[in-house]
Write a structure and sequence with these properties.
By secondary structure, the protein is of the alpha+beta class. About 15% of the residues lie in helices and about 35% in strands. The protein has a single domain, classed as Roll (2,3-Dihydroxybiphenyl 1,2-Dioxygenase, domain 1), CATH 3.10.180.10. The strands form 2 sheets. Strands 5, 6, 7, 8, 9, 10, 11, 12 and 13 form a 9-stranded mixed β-sheet that branches. Strands 2-3-4-1-14-17-16-15 form an 8-stranded mixed β-sheet.
């Protein structure tokens, strides 16, 4: 199976968070033109190639900067999901210290209503995307370089994921998995919420356990919700070590899946949230020149023979990168 040392592997941070949206063009416009992220990959859902899977991140699409979306088409009521117990509660992104006012003004000018708050001493700005997916911008000290290919000044730009808030009915079993199964460390607590870090306690490395209460409604999957959160494993050996660690704790783990840009295994944490452990490599330059990321549809080898039919079934993306 694997070496003893791999058995002590820990996750090293957040890799990506994946949400479900309706129509792709308004989502692309929102995340690139308004929020200033880079569309780093234009591909299809490998489990359903009739739908886009789009990735947004920093210049290279580095692990920890990635938001990804599945697109379910028209936003009719029965396609909508509900954020509840067993879901990631929001897309929480990191912005530089002192930049909240910039984002308040920019979002207001675009007609997006915002609310201010505070979490673990950090100023927070909350709003929703066009599919009503909750978004939070958290001010923090973050040395990651943002994408600078937009009109958002670099001093204010989103630097990547901040934390992933897991909404669960009870904290204990989820926290036990973060600790014993994934090797994370509890670093802070507020009423109803604990914060955990993978390695160094910094933006992009954190998960939060948010207690919804015993009677909270259960999450349902659909447009407007977060589908899963992916954590980082440095490489395949570390990932295999994490698989062993989870399985020895009694948790079921999926077979290894090749996601073209990373390799993944999936599990469900005890509170119901779907989790993934994704390798850092090979990354988004594996099938596209780094300067042209996201500018054309990329398909994994198993779908190349059907390229014409796949393109015919997809709505055209109006925007460039
Ligand atoms: Zn994923």
């Amino acid at each position: 199976m694997t070496s003893t040392s791999a058995g002590f592997a820990s996750v090293t941070g957040l890799h990506h968070v994946t949400a479900i949206a309706g129509e792709p063009n308004r989502s692309v416009a929102f995340y690139t033109r308004l929020l200033g992220l880079r569309l780093v990959k234009r591909t299809v859902n490998f489990d359903d190639p009739t739908a886009y899977h789009l990735y947004f991140g920093n210049e290279t699409g580095a692990p920890g900067t990635l938001l990804t979306f599945f697109y379910w088409g028209n936003d009719h009521a029965d396609a909508r999901g509900r954020i509840g117990a067993g879901a990631v509660a929001a897309l929480t992104l990191s912005i530089p210290r002192g930049s909240r006012t910039f984002w308040q003004d920019r979002l207001a000018a675009a007609g997006v209503a915002t609310r201010t708050g505070d979490r673990f001493g950090e100023p927070l700005l909350s709003f929703s995307d066009p599919d009503r997916i909750p978004i939070e911008l958290a001010e923090s000290v973050d040395d990651r370089r943002p994408w600078n290919g937009t009109d958002v000044p670099e001093t204010y730009a989103i630097t990547g994921l901040h934390a992933a808030p897991l909404l669960v009915r009870k904290a204990e079993a989820t926290e036990a998995m973060l600790d014993a199964g994934l090797g994370m460390t509890r670093i802070a607590a507020e009423p109803g919420r604990t914060r955990w870090a993978a390695g160094a306690a910094r933006p992009g490395n954190m998960v939060e356990v948010l207690v919804a209460g015993a009677h909270a409604p259960e999450a349902t999957v659909g447009i407007g919700t977060v589908h899963h959160v992916a954590l980082r494993a440095l490489d395949g050996d570390a990932q295999e070590g994490l698989r062993n660690r989870l399985q020895s704790g009694g948790h079921a783990v999926s077979p290894l899946r090749d996601r073209q840009y990373f390799r993944s295994i999936y599990f469900r944490e005890p509170g119901g949230v779907l989790g993934e452990i994704a390798t850092d490599g090979p990354g988004f330059a594996v099938d596209e020149c780094p300067s042209r990321l996201g500018t054309s549809l990329r398909l994994p080898p198993q779908f190349e023979a059907q390229r014409d039919q796949i393109i015919a079934a997809l709505p055209p993306l109006i925007l460039g990168a």
